[in-house]
Amino acid sequence: MADLRCNFVGIKSPNPFWLASAPPTDKEYNVRRAFEAGWGGVVWKTLGEDPPIVNVNGPRYGAVHGPDRWLMGLNNIELISDRPLEVNLREIKAVKRDWPDRALIVSLMVPCEEEAWKRILPLVEETGADGIELNFGCPHGMSERGMGSAVGQVPEYVEMVARWCKQNTRMPVIVKLTPNITDIRYPARAAFRGGADAVSLINTINSITGVDLDNFAPEPTIDGKGTHGGYCGPAVKPIALNMVAEIARDEETRGKPISGIGGITTWRDAAEFMALGASSVQVCTAAMTYGFRIVEEMIAGLSDWMDEKGHATLDDIIGKAVPNVTDWQFLNLNHVTKAVIDQDLCIKCGRCYAACEDTSHQAIAMSEDRVFTVKDEECVACNLCVNVCPVEGCITMRTMAPGEVDPRTGAVVSGEYANWTTHPNNPGAGCGTG
Amino acid sequence: MNRWTPGIVPGRLSSDELAAKFSDLHPPLDDHEAFVAAGRCYFCHDAPCTAACPTEIDIPMFIREIFSGRPEAAARTIFAQNVMGGMCARVCPTETLCEEACVRQEAEGKPVEIGRLQRYATDRLMGRGAHPFTRAEPTGRKVAVVGSGPAGLACAHRLAMAGHDVVIFEAREKPGGLNEYGIAAYKTTDGFAQAEVDWLVGIGGIEIRTGTALGRDITLDELLDMFDAVFLGMGLAGVNALGIPGEDLAGVEPAIDFIARIRQAKDLAEVPVGRNVVVIGGGMTAIDAAVQAKLLGAEHSTIVYRRGPGRMGASEYERELAAARGVTIVTNARPVRILGQDAVEEVEFEYTVETGDGRLEGTGETFRLPADQLFKAIGQKLEGVPGGIELENGKIRVDAAGRTTRERVWAGGDCVAPGEDLTVSATAQGRDAAASIHSFLMGEG
Fold first, then answer.
1. Per residue in B96-151, pLDDT tens?
2. Taking CB atoms and an 8 Å limit, are A268 and B68 in contact across chains?
3. Fewer CB within a 10 Å sphere, N or C end of chain A?
C-alpha cells in the first residue's frame, strides 16, 4: 500500500482528498458524514460576517449535460454560508475535536478592510481549525460587493489581504484564486508575496449554462431573470490543470504549495493535478453528483496506481510532470509522426475522413467500400482524426524513425532536437549571434 | 446421422457445427464495450442492485472501478463479497436479480449490463492467475466441508482465509458440484468451472478429496472426530420422480444427468440425443436440458410444464432464449403416462387449470407428444442425510448463521431449507456459515 498521507503546509491529512469549500461542507452534519466516508479533509464553506448573507429562493444550480445526461459542468449562484457565524464556528470546533486526524480548513470572505479580517481570524483560530483559505474566487454575487473574485482579480488586493492574514493569525493561509483573469500567475505571485503559505485553484468560472428560448432568459432563471454563475465540474478540468501548471512552473512561484481544484472526479484526475504540482486536491462536483462514497474509489485508485508504478509516497508524484510542461517555442519541430488507422478496429463511420477532408489537410483516403487510409504525403500529424474517432486505439500516431523520409516534406527525419528558436523561418532566430 | 434419424443417437451435427452452437452465450466485453457499459451506471445511493444480490456485491463501486480503468480492483471488490463472482457472472439469472433492480431497467428497460461487467472484471484478474486474498496466521483448527459446489467452496475459501485448514470431501470425480456438472455448457465454456476451483484453492490451506462420498466412504461421526467443525454442502443428490406409468422405460432419465454428460463430453458429437426430446419441468434445469438437446441437433425439443408460464422457475428472459433456439414451451399440461415398447415412444399429457386456491386440476382433455427421449426436471431431493440432523420440508434445517440442529455442524446451499437453487445464494450461505464457524472456532460463538 502506497503511503497517501498528505502534509500540506503543515496541515496533515490521511489522504490528499479534501472536499472543497462549497455546499457539501456547509455544516457539521455533512462534514461528519464526509469524514466517515473517508475524506482526508474539508475546506469548510466560506464564512462571512454577520448578519449572514441570504441566498435566492429559486434555482441555485444550472448544468451542462453530455450524452446520456452526463453532468459535464455545473454552474452555481449560491453565495457563501448563509448561517450565523457563531453556529458555523461552534460546529467547526466540535467536528475538529472529534476528527483530529483530518484536515479542517476554514474558508473566509469578509470585506477588504484589515479590521474585518482582524475580527474574524481569532474566532476561527479558537475553533482549532488547521488553516484558513481566503475566498478570492467566487465570481457571482459577492463580487458585486467587492469581495470574492473582485479581490482575486486585483493582485495588489490579493497581496494586501494575504499579508493582513499572515500578520494576524498563526494559522497557515491558503489563497483561493479565481480563474476569471487573464494570467493566473499574477494573483499567484501576489499571494506568495503577501506571505501566503499556499494557493488553491481554480474557483469557478463565470458562466451562463444556457438560455430558455421560450422566455429568452438565461439559465438558471429566477422570475424571468438570470445572472452569471460559477462553472465547475469535469468540463473545467483542462482549464484548471493549465493554471496549476502555470503556477508550478513559474519562476517566482515554482515549488510553492498548490491545492488543486477543478473537475476532479476519479483518482486519475487527482493524480494528474498532483503530477502538475498540486500537493492536495479538492473535490466538489463529483461528490455532488455521486455522493461522498466516491472517495473510496479515489483513495484505492491512487494507491493502486502508485503501487503499480512503484511510487511510495505522494512526494514521488507531486510535480513530476512539471518539467515536461514547456513553452511552444521549445517543442521539438523535428519530431515527425503520422496517423495510422487500424483496419481491424475501424468500424467505418468515416468521422476521421470528414474531419480531415472538410477541416484539415485532406490526408485520409476513402475507398468505394469504405476503407479509410492515411495519406502520409498529406498528413501533418494534427491528431484530429485520433480525437474524433469513436473507437479507442483505432487511430494512433506513429513516430517516424531517424533516417526515414517524411513523404509530406521530402525531408529526412534527423532525430535531432530543434525548436522554433533556431528555425530559419523565425525572424528572431540567430539575432543574438548575427 | 442427422436430425431426422430416429432414436437417441450421437452425431446429429458435426463437431464444427456443435462448437459454434455451444459457444459462449454472452461473449465477453472488450475494453471499449466495458467502458461504455460501465459509463451507464448511475452510482445509485444505497443501490437497488446491491440489495438484489444475494451476496450483496458493491456493484456501483466495482463498476466505477472498471470505469476508472481498474478492472482488477473491480474484481477484488466483487470477490470480497462473492468468491464465486466469476461463475456468478456467467450463470446468475441477473434479469431477476441485480439487473432487474437496476434503475435503468425501470427507466429504459435496459439495465446496466452488470453480469457482463462482472465477468469483464473477474476474467481480468483470474486470467492473470492472481489470487487476491492472503491467509491469516494459521489457527491450527481444521474444518471438513462436504461437497465442493459453490456453497462448499465459498465456505472453504472463507475459512482458509481466516487461517483454518480445510478438507473438502467430494463424492464425484471432479470438484465444482453443479458448477461443473449442472450448468449448461454454453453458459460456462472452456472448462471455467475447473479453472475457478483451481484459482480459488490458490489461497492455500484447502485440500480436496474427490471420490469420497458422505455415507459411502466416510461418516459424519468420523468427520466430527477428525475435525473441529463440519460444513455440509452436498446439494441434492436425488431426483424427484414423476410417479406415472412408463417411467422406467429406456430413454427416460433425469435432465441433470443429460446436462452433466454434455458438460463432461470431450466431443459434443459423441453425446447421443433424441430426435423428439421432451422435458418435463419449469426451472432452469428444464431450460438447460431442452436448449442443449436442440443445440445437439434434436428435431423437436419441447418443455412441458404443469402450471402457467408465470409460475415457471425459469425467468421470462430464459424462456425467450429457449424459444429463440427453437425450443417449444407447452404450459398447463401434466404428464399422465409414458408409452412405448422397450423405450419411450410417446408421452401423454392432460391439460390443467389452476383453481382459485392455486390447486391444479386436470381438464380431462389429453394429448400425446412423440418422444424418443424424456427428461425429468421437476426438482431434486435431499438424500443421505446423516443422523441427528433435523429436516424442514425435506431439507436440512439451519438457523440464520447456517447452524444445523447438530453441534459443530453447519450447512448451506441447495441442501438447506432456505436453499434457492442458485449459485449465488449457495455462495452467500457458504460464506456466512464460514463466518459463524470462524467465531465458533475462535471461541466467540
1. 999 999 999 999 999 999 999 999 999 999 999 889 999 999 999 999 999 999 99
2. yes
3. C
pLDDT in tens, B305-314: 999 999 999 9
State which CATH number among 3.40.50.1820, 1.20.1250.20, 3.50.50.60, 3.40.50.720 fits the domain covering B142-237+382-441: 3.50.50.60
| A263 and A374 housed in the same domain | no
Boundary residue ending a domain (A282, A301, A324): A324
Q: Tell me which chain A residues have a C-beta less than 8 angstroms from the C-beta of B67.
A: 266
At residue A431 the predicted structure's pLDDT band, cuts being 50, 70 and 90, is low
Average pLDDT score over residue span B335-360: 94
The distance of B298 to chain A (nearest Cα, Å) reads 37
- Considering its fold, how many domains does chain A have in total? 2
Q: Which domain holds residue A290?
A: 6-324
* Residues A140 and A266 reside in one and the same domain: yes
Instruction: Tell me the pTM.
Output: 0.90
Beta-carbon contacts below 8 Å between A and B? 36
> Is residue A432 included in any domain, yes or no?
no
Q: Could you tell me which CATH number the domain at B15-19+240-377 has?
A: 3.50.50.60
Nearest to A304 among B40, B43, B70 (CB): B70
Predicted-complex ipTM score = 0.85
Domain residue limits, chain B: 15-19+240-377, 40-127, 142-237+382-441
Is there a domain that residue A429 lies in?
Answer: no
> In terms of domains, do A52 and A185 share one?
yes
CB contact under 8 A, A392 and B39: no
Question: Please, what CATH class does the domain formed by B40-127 belong to?
Answer: mainly alpha
Contact A68 B61 (CB under 8 A): no
Our answer to whether residue A385 is catalytic in this structure is no
Mutate to test the interface with B, among A283, A297, A302, A308 (most CBs of B within 10 A): A297
Exactly one of A6, A112, A138, A232 is catalytic; which is it? A138
Same domain (yes/no): A203, A351: no
Contact B61 A296 (CB under 8 A): yes
Are residues A229 and A309 located together in one domain of the fold? yes
Sheet containing A61-65: order of strands:
A61-65, A71-76, A229-232, A205-207
B-chain residues near A296 (CB < 8 A): 61
| Fold match between domain B15-19+240-377 and domain B142-237+382-441 | yes
CA distance to partner chain A, nearest, from residue B104 (Å): 11
